[in-house]
Design a protein that fits this description.
Elements: H1 32-100, H2 110-116, E1 190-191, E2 202-205, H3 219-231, H4 236-245, H5 252-262, H6 267-278, E3 282-291, E4 303-310, E5 315-320, H7 325-331, E6 338-342, H8 346-354, E7 358-362, H9 364-377, H10 382-402, H11 418-440, H12 446-457, H13 459-462, H14 464-467, H15 476-482, H16 490-493, H17 521-534, E8 561-564, E9 579-580, E10 583-584, H18 587-599, H19 605-616, H20 627-639, E11 681-685, H21 689-702, E12 715-721, E13 724-733, H22 739-745, H23 749-755, E14 759-767, H24 776-796, E15 802-808, H25 815-819, E16 823-827, E17 845-851, H26 856-860
Parallel strand pairs: 3-6, 6-7, 14-15
Antiparallel strand pairs: 1-2, 2-8, 3-4, 4-5, 9-10, 11-12, 12-13, 13-14, 15-17, 16-17
Length: 862
């Protein structure tokens, strides 16, 4: 509001009006309205001023509050940054200690010596003032005496000969000589001079059995390889180079294949180790990372774990891809009670939760390490942490003291003295009280509180040794065994059972000397060779019955012999095999056959085969006797000259059945429709003589391989689209040995012999020539994969888990198998099923496999 200026009027002029009037005495005349307006304005300005003052005061207070908050936040951030910096510096100090520091955790000082109970430290090596033992000569070694004479035993001046004095000046030098040699075995041949006719032809002693069938390297070579590689830890390429320098050339493939062949020989030993381990009451357990460069489905990377389980009698190693409690479950399966010395890894805790009878004894060395790392990482709490290290050392001293007898020797199975036991219990309780008091202190550093919280959480396991004097305070036993560097192959040689003892059996007896065989290389070297000699397999030149594996089954005072023939037929040389129709026959088996025929001369071949199958328990998986297979084996034995069978009741020589074409198999009208337009496909098993003959005629007429009878278990199918026949296929026994398939499955020879019947071969697959239906072949393969396991189970009492087939690569590409999700795993070498040559004689074929179950590999390798 604009206020008009007031009118100022001077009083009436006086004689002295010309004089200026002072400002303070001048009067102003205002109207009442102007006065009110001025008062209101004054009050308004006062009100505005007061609000401005209050606003300024509020702003000042707000700014002070915000500044205080910012200072608090800055202080908190500074504290967090300092803590983060402290953690980073602690990590740096820890890494520097690991990389550049001392590897030992021993400290110089009295507390460490108290922990060991040794008093003053003693320097290593020879002590001054003490007599030495002198040069040690190994008098147990054989001697090679060398006589050294003067070249010219004459006087250098006059030339007269020197006279020889009695005695010699002797000295000794230790030498070693390693030389490879060829072991040539010459067997005498014999021929009967009598007319008994009990042994046909020429006989000869059996070929000495070989450790690896058809292998050229003997037991001494493989024993040296095992010790050198797995006990002394020399890499394979250096081992092969060393053997080559000695004149013994061995390829890397031979080395790898030989070790794979030897591995099954150690399985009984491994099983005995596990049984002995599970019978113990206390175990040390530990694990560490181990790189294994093997590609496994579902596993990323090459990190595996080497586990060690150490008891008083057994040291057993497990190499596993997992670090979970499943390894403990498998190793200690069936164990109800026991104590496991370990560290604080969660897998051990999980195992203890699942097995209430198991007690975990946590390692005091790891607890001590926590304090040492705390002292190294946080210098501010160095003195505090070292006090706890000294307290742990005192616990070690008290525990060692209670286990000593009055004479200073360790007690063996005796109870500790009550006084020392009470002192140990009091020291443990005192440590627990100090821990609780430190945790209750609000000023304790966070890293120190973390270590104490861990101690409190695991206190029950840390004090197991107090009530159980036979339980050590730490887990150093397992850690020393794990860190030896020998563990990468302990599945072969690291054990504490006496394999050097000639028990003559596959089982093993526990060692009583209390020392690991791994610490006795000389004994292990000799014992390993002896054990491998007992495990030798017969070579291709003799039956298993004449090998050392039969343990004296031959007549006393006579050498075992085998017939020798010189015919050209492969069948005439079948006596050199130890297996007929997939079964091994020993000398006792041959004698059993001969004895049955002698007891009942009228016994024919069929009743004989049935009796033998009943006697040997030679049956099919469904319980039926394998009498037909047995008759085939008997016929081959007779052809090899091992037995003489009764005359066959069939006098006419059997010929392979022929199936000439008939109008029933003539070509039909073309069928070009794709598979989805055809009628419903039906797979009908072939049963009955008429259906079987018709199926055989179709195969003989239209399949490029023709008809050949299937051997062993088999199923044949006719495939119909509605009522029209469109395809035929058959399944039978699988191939005896197949490199690509066996590699894919991952089984060894014993597993293959046991589970080969679970693999079924697609022997024939024929789409009739006039059927040109797209997608029909793959559709049939997918349906047969679902139907055949059920049909096979009904007929033979078991279900196969894997299909195999062969596709001639020059003729077909296997597109239908690929479309049906079959797997191509390699090719054959073209030698044939029963060929003895080592070059291609038949077309090379692609190998296709189809797993019928996800766990097929586990079943086949079981």
């Amino acid at each position: 509001m604009t206020v008009a200026p007031s009118v100022m009027e001077a009083s009436p002029a006086s004689p002295s009006a010309a004089q200026p009037v002072p400002f303070a005495t001048a009067y102003v005349t205002l109207t009442n309205q102007e006065h009110i307006r001025l008062v209101m304005q004054a009050r308004s300005w006062k009100s505005l001023h007061q609000r401005a003052v209050e606003r300024a005061r509020w702003r000042d207070e707000r700014y002070r509050r915000v500044l205080r908050q910012l200072k608090e936040q800055a202080a908190q951030r500074e504290a967090a940054l300092c803590a983060e910096l402290g953690v980073a510096q602690a990590k740096i100090r820890d890494l520097q200690q690991r990389v550049f520091g001392r590897k030992s955790e021993r400290r110089k000082g009295g507390s460490e010596q108290q922990a060991r109970g040794l008093g003053a430290p003693i320097p290593r090596g020879h002590q001054r003032g003490s007599p030495g033992h002198g040069r040690t000569m190994l008098t147990h070694l054989p001697q090679r005496i060398e006589v050294v004479e003067l070249d010219t035993p004459q006087c250098p001046r006059c030339g007269l000969e020197l006279s020889v004095l009695p005695g010699t000046e002797d000295s000794e030098v230790l030498e070693i000589e390693v030389q490879a040699y060829r072991r040539v075995i010459r067997r005498r041949r014999y021929r009967l001079s009598c007319g008994c006719g009990c042994v046909p032809g020429i006989v000869a002693p059996a070929v000495p059995p070989r450790l690896i069938e058809r292998g050229k390297f003997g037991v001494s070579v493989w024993a040296s390889v095992l010790l050198d590689k797995f006990l002394y830890g020399r890499p394979s390429h250096r081992l092969l180079q060393d053997l080559g320098d000695r004149g013994l050339t061995m390829s890397p493939g031979t080395l790898g294949g030989g070790l794979a062949a030897l591995a099954p020989l150690f399985e009984p030993l491994d099983q005995a180790l596990v049984r002995k381990l599970r019978s113990q009451a206390h175990w040390h357990a530990d694990e560490t990372r181990w790189a294994v460069f093997v590609e496994l489905a579902g596993k990323v990377g090459h990190r595996w774990y080497l586990w060690v389980f150490h008891s008083s009698a057994v040291v057993h190693y497990v190499l596993d891809e997992s670090r979970s409690a499943a390894v403990l479950e498998g190793e200690l399966a069936g164990v109800q009670r026991g104590v496991i010395s370990c560290y604080r890894y969660s897998a051990y805790k999980k195992f203890a939760r699942r097995h209430p009878g198991g007690v975990l004894a946590f390692c005091w060395a790891h607890q001590r390490r926590d304090f040492l790392e705390l002292a190294n990482s946080y210098p501010d709490v160095l003195a505090w942490a070292m006090q706890w290290v000294d307290a742990i050392a005192e616990l070690y001293r008290l525990n060692s003291s209670r286990l000593l007898s009055p004479s200073g020797q360790h007690r063996t199975g005796q109870a500790p003295s009550a006084k020392r036991q009470a002192a140990l219990r009091q020291a443990a309780q005192r440590m627990a009280d100090e821990r609780d008091a430190a945790l209750a202190d609000p000023g304790i550093a966070q890293p120190a509180a973390k270590v104490l919280h861990s101690m409190a959480e695991h206190w029950r396991g840390l004090t197991v040794f107090v009530k159980r004097p036979w339980v050590p305070m730490d887990n150093n036993t397992a850690e020393r065994g794990r860190a030896t560097g020998r563990g990468r192959a302990q599945e072969f040689l690291w054990f504490r059972l006496a394999v050097v003892r000639p028990t003559g059996r596959h089982d093993v007896q526990p060692s009583d000397d209390g020392q690991a065989v791994g610490a006795q290389p000389a004994h292990l070297a000799a014992g390993l060779s002896t054990s491998l000699c007992r495990q030798r397999r017969p070579s291709a030149g003799g039956h298993r019955c004449i090998s050392s594996l039969d343990h004296g089954r031959h007549p006393a005072g006579r050498h075992a012999c085998v017939p020798v023939t010189h015919g050209r037929s492969n069948r005439r040389h079948r006596h050199l095999m130890s297996i007929y129709c997939g079964r091994e026959f020993s000398a006792d088996d041959i004698q059993t056959i001969t004895r049955l025929m002698q007891q009942d001369p009228s016994l024919k071949r069929s009743p004989l085969s049935r009796k033998l199958c009943e006697l040997w328990g030679w049956t099919k998986p469904n319980g039926e006797l394998k009498d037909m297979t047995c008759r085939v084996a008997l016929t081959r034995m007779q052809a090899d000259g091992l037995i003489t069978l009764p005359p066959s009741q069939i006098t006419v020589t059997r010929r392979r059945a022929a199936f000439p074409p008939t109008p029933a198999t003539d070509a039909q009208a073309p069928l070009p429709q794709p598979v989805h337009e055809l009628d419903v496909l039906t797979l009908c098993p072939v049963t009955g003589t008429a259906a079987s003959r018709l199926w055989n005629e179709y195969i003989a007429r239209y399949h490029y391989l023709g008809y050949t009878p299937l051997s062993g278990s088999q199923l044949r199918y006719s495939v119909y689209a509605g009522t029209q026949l469109v395809a035929l296929l058959s399944f039978g026994a699988s191939a005896w040995a197949l490199a690509g398939r066996d590699r894919f499955i991952g089984w060894q020879t014993p597993q293959r012999l046991k589970n080969l019947h679970l693999v079924v071969n697609n022997a024939r697959f024929l789409i009739l020539p006039w059927v040109q239906s797209k997608g029909l072949a793959s559709k049939i393969l997918s349906k047969i994969a679902r139907q055949l396991p059920r049909d096979w189970l009904v007929r033979y009492g078991y279900s196969p888990v894997l299909f195999e087939t062969f596709v001639e690569s020059e003729r077909h590409r296997g597109t239908c198998y690929k479309a049906a999700n079959w797997l191509h795993v390699g090719q054959t070498v073209g030698r044939g099923k029963k060929s003895t040559v080592h070059h291609q004689i038949i077309p090379i074929k692609d190998i296709w496999l189809y797993p019928l179950r996800k766990d097929f590999a586990d079943i086949l390798c079981g």
